[in-house]
Design brief:
By secondary structure, this protein is mainly alpha-helical. The chain has one domain. Helix content is 81%, strand content 0%. The chain has nine helices and no strands. The protein is globular and about 45 Å long. It holds the Pfam family VTT_dom.
Length: 191
């Protein structure tokens, strides 16, 4: 059953859309607050299809993510009782407990690490507000971390460019199904 190739083709087509940069920024913004899909899924194809714009796309992504992170921080700071219900409902409770223990142990350093962590970034932005982390250090550290991550991702994708995109397309079904199998196995092991 071949489904990933069509999805890949559509994603590459969308990455060239005239409003792609806006949607990339929007996804990055809402991902830092509540959206479950990281902006990398847009940043990578956009950087591969337009390598000359990759650094610009990375900067848009970082700035939007930090602005979204500030909203997440405010939610944690002012409305945690409301947000706590959604953390449990969306299945982020274990991630939340990890983030809290990391904040207690390492403080501001956690915000830097969070930019690269597989734990959803929104967990850290909200947690920073709940823990009443100093706001300016939070914003500065978040920007450095997110910019470093997205610049690295964009640069690697741009480096591969259209040639890598074509090679990736040839293997996309194997990669896609491998990820599905790994996700199912991880779910079965971790539940």
């Amino acid at each position: 059953m071949k489904i990933f190739g069509a999805m890949y083709d559509k994603t590459m087509q969308w990455s060239k859309h005239r409003y792609a940069a806006f949607w990339l920024s929007f996804v990055s913004f809402i991902e830092a607050i509540f959206f479950p899909i990281p902006p990398d899924v847009m940043l990578i194809p956009m950087s591969m299809s337009k390598p000359k714009n990759a650094m610009k796309y990375a900067l848009y992504t970082a700035v939007a993510s930090v602005i979204g992170g500030m909203i997440g921080y405010a939610l944690g700071y002012y409305a945690f009782d409301f947000v706590q219900h959604y953390i449990q409902q969306w299945g982020y409770q274990a991630h939340w407990e990890t983030a809290v223990s990391w904040f207690e142990k390492w403080g501001i350093l956690v915000v830097f690490v969070a930019g690269f962590s597989p734990i959803p970034y929104k967990v850290f932005t909200i947690c920073a507000g709940v823990m009443q982390m100093a706001f300016l250090p939070f914003v500065l550290t978040a920007f450095v971390s997110r910019a470093a991550r997205f610049l690295l991702v964009a640069k690697l994708a741009a480096w591969g460019g259209e040639k890598f995109a074509a090679k990736l397309r040839k293997s996309i079904e194997v990669i896609g199904w491998s990820v599905v199998v790994l996700a199912v196995v991880a779910y079965l092991i971790l539940r």
